[in-house]
Amino acid sequence: QVQLVESGGGLVQSGGSLRLSCVTSGFAFSSYTMYWYRQVPEKDRELVASISRGGGTTTYGDFVKGRFTISRDNVRNTMYLQMNNLKPEDTAVYSCGTPAVRVGYNYGAWGQGTQVTVSP
């Protein structure tokens, strides 16, 4: 059974830091590029960062501007997102996953998300 479980969200003041984790199981984690997305109500989901299978290539949304770092541990089947210098506009539900894993008849494996709230 494919599972992705995010953790590490919470309430933090502007300028603070959080480290999100995404623990996965049920698929060959090391074979897939992985993604962090975020979403706020009534807005489209926004790509935060991605990381290649081996971790050597990373991409970030323009809004990140050097504040976040994505990483992965293919032994622990876990991905991370270190977020520094957080801003109130970073408030969102952050989810991890990949569109490439087949789950039943569909493609796309995503976690339930973890809430990040940044106070002014």
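The record above closes out task 2.4. Task 2.5 opens with a second protein, given below.
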Amino acid sequence: QVRLVESGGGLVQPGGSLRLSCAASGNVYTIWSMGWYRQAPGKRRELVATITRTGSTNYADSLKGRFTISRDNAKNTVYLQMNSLKPEDTAVYLCNAGGVVTHDGTGDYWGQGTQVTVSS
């Protein structure tokens, strides 16, 4: 059983920063892609950023320059550094792991999400 556990969310003032972490646990051999999505109330889930095992990144155009994704393959952990946060960044941030290889095969997984609230 693969489990993704996010941490690092919280309340921050506009212009502030947060760093999210997501660690995959379980009988994981390798993970191809890890990433972050977000969903605000009443809105569709949207891509924030993804990163492959080889370090290739993909960002939502609107977030380039403010958010940075990184990962530690040895720890099966992905990070999201968020700077210059705006109220419109308020959402539940969900971690995704794609192409997760375990003893039982390959699959995709989602975390439970961590709340990020940007407000003064």
